[in-house]
């Protein structure tokens, strides 16, 4: 397992010290009131090692991820800059990476991004100058070679721990592990997966990844999401691309009275974490509770992942 | 059978209604026809398999276009019948004649007269 | 071929409302194949326009001509002797033809009669789909003959993205996921291992981003 520390990232240190890491995410507001994002971060700060800030999620215009991570950093917390390649060309991407690095943001998650047709500007252009794999390569190049893509040297290169997303449940399944291999070859260091409801499928994915030695090359954090209601379970099952919610989960949620469904959803989430804690290759958890951030502390505690290790 | 049908109808014979193209319908109206109807074989019985189906699509195109330019889509219609159904042929002729009389003359004719005056 | 779609007739009429003598000019190539601007479409449109204007009390002269192409000097020259009789030319050629015609006959207004859409194929009569975006640097050899630039909604070079569901794109369940097609094809060719080769960052200067483009062959000049 990799132990050499490459950046000042707290997340990197937690993982390389051998602990199970915990990350979560906060969505910025649709306005310029930074207190919204600060409050969300404060709610979960003691229960996570790093906080992802989403980047115009679902292509809906929000306070940008860059400004948000800076607010979080100024609170003394550890942010993860999520960056999509949908909205910015390579100049802007490199520039924003430097922007974050200038505030000593040490974590980045490289994504392509949902198509703008889902958001509030379906008639806008999209960029996709780079794709997520090429962005991973870019950040690694900036960090390790200290150079811009164009070749010139960077004054005070970024020191970022590079992550990406992986979706074991998207189609086609047969290339999901090769895709992980590709991202690792591109230079990714940590992975946050799409939220897991189909534990058996995830176990299969991890086994195939392990067989190829990939779980030794990158830190895989299993994604989990607490379901609020049976309606949410059905919505995610039927309307969200790349999401696998087994019938048993939906049944379990609907088998419980409406007032008790949220509690059941949290229970399922905690059970999932407990099931995956010992699974080889799982190096942590990424708890996605968008607009329900207040549940994160409870989930982390009930999963036996509290308190978080204090890394100097 | 020597049945009578309205004398205002001009018949143009074709080997198959599939031979009717959109331009033929339009030119008829351009030249002052008040209405055009296409009579083809029953669907499924076309000797050339799909000629009457194509004709129907073209008649639909003509309807949309004529409506868009203000001549009126109701002036063109497609009918299907078997060649043995002479009484039905008369029925159709009478139906179309009634309809066109109600719609009035092709506005092009009126407009042309006005311009000539 | 270049696929185009005829403009809505009210838009065309709006542009012609002050004209007294109109030439509707079609093209015998791409727009004929996609049934938007060939000889037949010219005839239909001209007839419809004549009736429209007549109905509105205007005696407008509308002539028809279909050139072999509107993107070559030789064919556009055929208009030289007659173009001065017209107030406006309504060209049903693709954007290329409309522009070339306009460049050649600077004193005659030229209006486009079609919306030029993309470079594509006839999948079946009446259905045309995009295949090429003219990126200037073809990588089809690496992707089994299927283009990630034109067939992936995000033009991802190392796809598919996480939204690919049952072989369809996240933006439209009737749209094939370009990367699923590439993977299927690589499989058929026994080249699925090629999937793991990282396709490098694209040089977009060879496409629109680099500015209006030019190809020169000195050896044939």
Question: How would you sum up this structure in a few lines?
Answer:
With 117 residues, chain B is mainly alpha-helical. Helices cover 47% and strands 9% of the residues of chain B.
Name of the level-1 CATH class of the largest domain in chain C: Alpha Beta
**What class, by secondary structure content of chain C?**
alpha/beta
What value does the Rg of chain C take, in angstroms?
22 Å
Shape of chain B: globular
Distinct helical segment count of chain B: 4
Profile the largest sheet of chain C: 4 strands, parallel
Per DSSP, what share of the residues of chain C sits in E-state strands of 2 or more residues? 15-25%
What order do the helices and strands come in, and which of them pair?
The complex is a heterotrimer of chains A (312), B (117) and C (221).
Chain A: H1 10-16, E1 21-26, H2 34-44, E2 50-53, H3 65-74, E3 79-84, H4 90-102, E4 107-111, H5 132-145, E5 161-166, H6 176-186, E6 190-195, H7 199-211, E7 219-224, H8 230-239, H9 247-254, H10 261-277, E8 282-287, H11 296-302
Parallel strand pairs in A: 1-2, 1-8, 2-3, 3-4, 4-5, 5-6, 6-7, 7-8
Chain B: H1 22-30, E1 36-40, H2 51-68, E2 76-80, H3 86-103, H4 107-116
Parallel strand pairs in B: 1-2
Chain C: E1 2-6, H1 9-16, E2 21-27, H2 30-33, H3 39-55, E3 61-67, H4 73-76, E4 88-91, H5 95-104, E5 110-112, E6 114-124, E7 127-132, H6 148-151, E8 168-169, E9 172-176, H7 178-188
Parallel strand pairs in C: 2-3, 2-4, 4-5
Antiparallel strand pairs in C: 1-6, 6-7, 8-9
